[in-house]
Amino acid sequence: MWSLLGLLTVLHNVLPSQLLSLLHSLWQSLQDSLTPYSYFDVPEFLGSSAVEPNDLYRHVHIYLHNSLLSSPSSPLPRLTLSLPRGSSPSSPPSLSLSPNHAVEDSFSGHRLLWTHHADTLHDSLDERRSFSLRLPKRHSLLLPYISHVSSVADLLSHSSRQRRLFTNAGNSSGSAWASVPFRHPATFDTLALDPTLKHFLVSDLDSFVTGRDFYRRTGRAWKRGYLLHGPPGSGKSSLVAAMANHLHYDVYDLELTKVADNSDLRALLIQTTNRSIIVIEDIDCSLDLTGDRAVKASKTRKRTRRMRGTSDDDDDDDRSNGYEAGEAKVTLSGLLNFTDGLWSCCGEERVIVFTTNYKGGVDPALLRPGRMDVHVKLGAIGAAAVRELVRRYVGEVREEVMEMVEESVRVGKGMTAAEVGEVLLRHREEPEEAVRELVGEMQGKGSVSGEELSEGLEEDEGGSTEGSWEVAPEGKRRKEKSGWEGRVRFLGRLKSLTKSDSGRRGV
What we know:
alpha/beta, nine-stranded mixed β-sheet, four-stranded antiparallel β-sheet, 17 strands, 19% strand, elongated, disordered C terminus, signal, ATP hydrolysis activity, ATPase_AAA_core
């Protein structure tokens, strides 16, 4: 053995480097032909300059990080722990595979092996890192497995990254977005929504996210439009935040009054990223979009008058519609192309949300399916949502008190989620006092005198009143009857509850 080692040392010093490299490659080829595995290297950088990063290396690093965390019960190799600068002490450390160690993975019933290599460069402190993948030769696993690794890593990086809230800066070019971190706490678990409506929205969003193949097969742009309408305080902005948190999307809050014209609006759309929510709040108040049609109709009438020999002042009519002659502006046509035109297809996996307090103030062309696919009406809070808000704000209260709250929702004129939350917030340290105050507020909004009650009983013989929420244009509607019989029962129970509370206090 020593003689063989000595001979190899002499040959290594005597033989030319080209011949040694050829012998080494022949030896590697012999090994590859005898082994049942194939080996693939994934370097950190492309080429020898170490300038252009290799996205596949980043995908493998993220994928293995998640695999190591998701299987703590299996035997783990040596790991490297790290904590980025600026992280809080409670943040979990990041795990990565230590250099020159390997970890196993499985795919389609086959065992695969990832090895992390880190080689120090000659006369340098820099390292050249790479991953090595070992696959069975007899099965065509490379392309499906690499696609699986990239898709999982892309999903993980998207869900764990810091999301941003963008707004158009309104500079001279009109094409810049300014951003801040998006940390809104609203989720679908914290929203005071009807459970059926909440389930519908979550299912619709999940179906949209997983619908890439469907949208491509049907030739539709991969986007979804929502119109949220209802009175102030009904939770429209909170619902947008809950949608963003559920989808892990960035939010682009578009202020139309800062956009000079349609060209700048297109430039803003091009700069938005995929997997984002584009929000235009109070669409009916942002611009007088319906004025475009009035201007065009007025000009058509004046053109007809000129052809007949009469004349009129175009500038006066243009100003009467709110626009100076020749003034550049965002038009209804530009906004329609923004939501459903050719320019709207420059990206994919986008959600467009319009909010308004009054649906009737929005031009019907913006409301059709394909632009605003789902219409969500938000209004007075329902019984189930009120129970959830009470539980969340003040904790558990007696069941008979909660029944009184639910009954007051059914017979009162209704309160928005913001109004209910404010009442409970003022008395959050005294649960039953908070609930009594809430019942009083609701009765103050929907109080009924004795004469009104008798008149209502007479009216109820021929019919009943109904309250509803709607999700359009699918036509799903849930209605709850709230007749005068319920008001009579509620007033009786309110009187008995007041007496029992007064007795306990010694009044």
